[in-house]
Amino acid sequence: MNNNQEIILQAENLSRYFGGVKAVDGVSFSLRRNEVLGVIGPNGSGKTTLANLLTGFVKPSKGKVIFEGNDITGSPPYKVADLGIARSFQMVKPFYQLPAFKNLNVALLSPRVRRLAGGRYGDRDAMAKDLLEEVGFERDSWVISHQAASLPHGYLKRLELAKCMALQPEVIVLDELFSGLSLAEVASLVPVIEKLVHQGKTLVMIEHRLKELFRIADRVIVLNFGQKIAEGEPAQVMEDPQVKGAYLGSEAEE
Ligand SMILES: Nc1ncnc2c1ncn2[C@@H]1O[C@H](COP(=O)(O)OP(=O)(O)OP(=O)(O)O)[C@@H](O)[C@H]1O
């Protein structure tokens, strides 16, 4: 449980319209350092667009993103990453032709990682293999060195997480990390997430897997048609009549 009161990330009246579609509509929230914030809501409620807004992949129609007290609204993704916000993607897009561990090079060769290491890069291959082992790749098996194209989905999702970790970020935005994973695969990733929290990372977790999310999240916000309709502790939020209404007949996996 997070007891830190320092606000690390804020969304202020964040909005993004695509033509007539209000994908995200006036969403505000504050995230405390080392907190785990869950973002839930039915399909099409604006969760991925919110992740894109926080990480610079789309620019807001209105509103602001404040990170560590600085207005980063409209900053491009590479700058946002350099400041310390990493993200994973719902649809994984690795460098398919590269061995799994080489996929971490973009992060491991980033100016941020070099800065944090005092100007040196170190043994990148060893760092990549350590990280992949942390997220559940067997170090001595073929998977770590095999082309990403040949990896099963579960490994590609782990690779996404390892790429985030390689950046040594302050905040990690995870867009449906658990989607498409078996119960056993999710169960094996939960301790990895818990370790990141223990290390002081701040997490935003967009999830449909509510049961697993609620084990980890300190707080959740609920989106529906782009608007934040509830915010609070998981159990409390799921009792909210508006949230129950939004989820009625929807696809939430419990
Ligand atoms: N680039 C885009 N152009 C036009 N409409 C978009 C674009 N991106 C998202 N939308 C629309 O914005 C709304 C919110 O989409 P978004 O993908 O953010 O929802 P979501 O909650 O992440 O959905 P899911 O749970 O299915 O991943 C949807 O109506 C979607 O069709």
From TrEMBL:
User: Which Gene3D superfamilies does the entry link to?
Assistant: P-loop containing nucleotide triphosphate hydrolases
Q: Which organism is it from?
A: Desulfoferula mesophila
Chain ranges of the ABC transporter domain = 9-250
Official protein name in the record: ABC transporter ATP-binding protein
Asked if the keyword Methyltransferase belongs to this entry, the reply reads no
Enumerate the InterPro entries for this protein: AAA+_ATPase (IPR003593), ABC_AA/LPS_Transport (IPR051120), ABC_transporter-like_ATP-bd (IPR003439), BCA_ABC_TP_C (IPR032823), P-loop_NTPase (IPR027417)
Pfam (any one): ABC_tran
Query: What span is annotated as the signal peptide, if there is one?
Result: none
Q: Which GO terms describe its molecular function?
A: ATP binding; ATP hydrolysis activity
Listed CDD domains? ABC_Mj1267_LivG_branched (cd03219)
List keywords of the entry alphabetically. ATP-binding, Nucleotide-binding, Transport
- Gene Ontology annotations for the cellular component aspect, listed alphabetically: plasma membrane
